[in-house]
Design brief:
CATH superfamily of the largest domain: HAD superfamily/HAD-like
Structural class: alpha/beta
Distance between the termini: 14 Å
Largest sheet: 6 strands, parallel
CATH class of the largest domain: Alpha Beta
Oligomer: single chain
Number of strands: 10
Strand order of the largest sheet: 7-6-1-8-9-10
Shape: elongated
CATH architecture of the largest domain: 3-Layer(aba) Sandwich
CATH topology of the largest domain: Rossmann fold
Length: 244
Amino acid sequence: MLHKPEMIFFDYGHTLCYEPVQDYPAGWAAVLEHAVVNRSGVTAEELSRLCAETYDRLWGVMRPLEIETDGFKLDASIYECLGLEFDLPLEELEYIRWCATEPIYPMEGIEGFLGLCAGLGVRTAVISNLSYSGGALRRRIDETLPFHHFEFILASSDGVYRKPSEWIFRRALARAGVEAGESWFVGDDVSCDIEGAARSGIYPIWYNSPLKCSYKPAPKAPPGCGHARVESWDELGAVLRGLI
């Protein structure tokens, strides 16, 4: 039986925030604008193609094993191999690249729902599959959702495992000091978010937004586990209020 949670964990992409486009060439071009040394003479188009091929090869091997790429270190390795030096720290370059690659916006209704959680004393945190660093993720969330009260933001790039691995959920539970049965996880991805959370004993809420996701296809089938399904934050807010 559904009951008021002590803690709600949230997915990031297409759950908390909407990313309408992903323009990777624009991101790598933004990086090269800050190159002060380019020994290889690599162009933005060449850098974009090389990085896309490198990331795709790694993801093809790692994602079936439910482990994550540390994109920050991978980028640093690529830059060094190409003889690239910059006028900014690599942490700032990562942020600039991500902003140029994809703008992000709050999902409609998320401010009201997070305010409801704060008012009811429901704790909140984020668990995201991401090759960008956790520091970059927190910066983007802080700027896009300045009203949030997340206790922490856990990116898979800062560990080894990615959703649906139980290890990333267990790490979040340990960090929060809560039991799985007292928690909800809200996300849009059937396998990684909903079935992954269920595997870890966390009650999953499938946030099935009618907005089309820009970077993955719509699910072919509903989750193969017990869950609740909502299409908006207002709908989930009504559910939460009904448990008080």
